[in-house]
Design a protein that fits this description.
alpha/beta; 5-stranded parallel sheet; 14 helices; 48% helix; globular; disordered N terminus
Length: 365
Amino acid sequence: MNTPLPSHTPLPLPSEVVETLYRSNPWWQGEPAPDVPRTRRRLVGQVRRRLEYGNTPIVAGPGPLGVGKTTMQLQIIRDLLDEGVPPRHIIRIQFDELHGADEMADPILHMTRWLERNVTPATFNALAQQGQPAYLFLDEVQKIHNWSNQLKFLVDTTTVRVVGTGSSALRIEQGRDSLAGRMSTVRAGVLSLTEIAEFRSITSPRHFALEESFGQFCRREFWQELAEHGRNNAAARDRAFRLFSECGGYPATHDPSQLTLMGFHNFVRPDNWYNVPMGKRELTSADTGGRDRLFYLEYKQFKLIGGGRPAFILAVGAPLTIVACAALLLGSETPWVTIAIVIASLVIYAALAGIWVWKETQRSD
């Protein structure tokens, strides 16, 4: 007669971790999910299709901060709730806001064991057998040490659908080897021209669909269709490109609703906000009366970083830099000349950048 194994009760989670989990998953207690922008990136549909119909249990979405990875997760969660998925089958963990996780060994596995016993109505495997699998959304997952091996063990021993996003593409890529055959990747980049047109309510050009194989590039008809597509959508494409050149490719610079809904604190973290000179007084992030003004100044600063106007500075500064490098190579016999040219180039480059930023600041006043 086989003796049943004793049930294992995992160590309790730190109280601050439990509080953060419930705050990040308000739908567990019947509260609505956070508001999300009305505009949607194509990224949302791509990840959702991989999640539902893909051949891997994990869908990874690496990409820089501010391109909409967190928004994508919240929009998919909103869809799942609207489709009738039980709220306690949906779990979201924001690791860059999860204080206390470092105190645990294998925090992903520790938390999922706790969730199976305290949040979900049954284990992940039992839910999957009932035809109602659990969904696990992990944001900034790369911040957890040994995250890939933990996810490998999780999906090898349980049936759960996982979406993992992170702002460090390098760390996400480093986990691909241990998750081979278990993870597919949907890269999150800046907006495409078609997405900018949609965000700006421009008559959006039809997206030119590509086949899965490279054989299409060998067909003459493919290039003819592509050229025709470009001619038919030239006006919308050119207008979208001008907007891209002026404002960059980040969603918040093209969706006005995100300025008040999400704010630019997604790009400039609250703990990094600084006082902004406003004449005779200082405006801080806590000054709610002038918050819109702060968002606008951050937008102008963000536009200078991601827009096309700094191209002028690069166009002027790049030749100077090239001259300096050439002098460095050719002027070994007269090092003082080389040093003088390099210093002069850097001073001129900095002066041009300073003048341009000053002009933009005056224009925003």
